[in-house]
Amino acid sequence: MAATKPNVIFVLGGPGAGKGTQCTRIAEAYDYVHLSAGDLLREEAAKPDSTLGKEINEHLKNGSIVPVAITCKLLENAMKNSGKENFLIDGFPRNKDNIDGWQKAMDGKVNIQCVLFFDCDEKTCVARCLERGKASGRTDDNEESLKKRIITYNESTRPVIQMYEKDNLVKRIDASNDVDKVFQDVQNVLNNIKS
Ligand code: UP5
Ligand code: MG
């Protein structure tokens, strides 16, 4: 990380809202590194020598939230190792404990530019994940895990978004539209962002 504070955009929204898809598009068009907390956890759990694999996998399957110390460390390492300064942090923070853990580790060290909130109705989210589940190999793209993921999102992550709304950081995007339309709306937000 450079001497100036790195810029961070948190990217939130329900399971299947399109966070990853849009982050990929953003990273292609803008100077941002895409860090998906979920992907980092899946990669860590897949390491043959990982001591955390069992614990992480249980959380993924149950749609519950991995202890913040684990997720935060993975994010911090990925930020450091990238050598870059602008980050899209996809799927984090998911609850109050995540915010507290992040603040403990990162307070004053990063500039949070905004929270991109991909707002998508539950039915569409579930349908997208089930469709993806036919080929994704993700242990949580099934009806049982999805029920739990949706509950966790509603109970734990929506309050996080509401909290950031009070700080005027949230940029809400209608994520039920097609990928290109969603990306147009994203561009409108990013082109007006202060660095
Ligand atoms: N798709 C995307 N956009 C579309 C559009 N506009 N129209 C039609 N189709 C669209 O998209 C999902 C699917 O929909 C894809 O097939 C895509 O082609 C299509 P994607 O972009 O992958 O959506 P995304 O929002 O990224 O969905 P994802 O399933 O990744 O969201 P989750 O938030 O559920 O998953 P994540 O990987 O972030 O987290 C998984 C688990 O990790 C959590 O449940 C939790 O257990 C754990 N976790 C933590 O504990 N802590 C963290 O900080 C993060 C994760
Ligand atoms: Mg994702």
Please specify the SSE layout and strand pairing.
Elements: E1 7-13, H1 19-29, E2 33-36, H2 37-46, H3 53-62, H4 68-82, E3 86-90, H5 96-106, E4 111-119, H6 122-136, H7 143-166, E5 170-174, H8 179-190
Parallel strand pairs: 1-3, 1-4, 2-3, 4-5
Helix pairs in contact: 1-8, 2-3, 2-4, 4-5
Magnesium ion binds next to helix 1.
Describe the structure.
The chain is of the alpha/beta class and 195 residues long. The protein has a single domain (7-182), classed as Rossmann fold. The chain has eight helices and five strands; from the N terminus they run E-H-E-H-H-H-E-H-E-H-H-E-H. The protein has helices at residues 19-29, 37-46, 53-62, 68-82, 96-106, 122-136, 143-166, 179-190; strands spanning 7-13, 33-36, 86-90, 111-119, 170-174. Strands 2-3-1-4-5 form a five-stranded parallel sheet, sandwiched between helices. The longest helix has 24 residues, at 143-166. The chain is globular. The site of magnesium ion has 6 residues, from helix 1. Magnesium ion binds next to helix 1. One of its GO terms (cellular component) is nucleus.
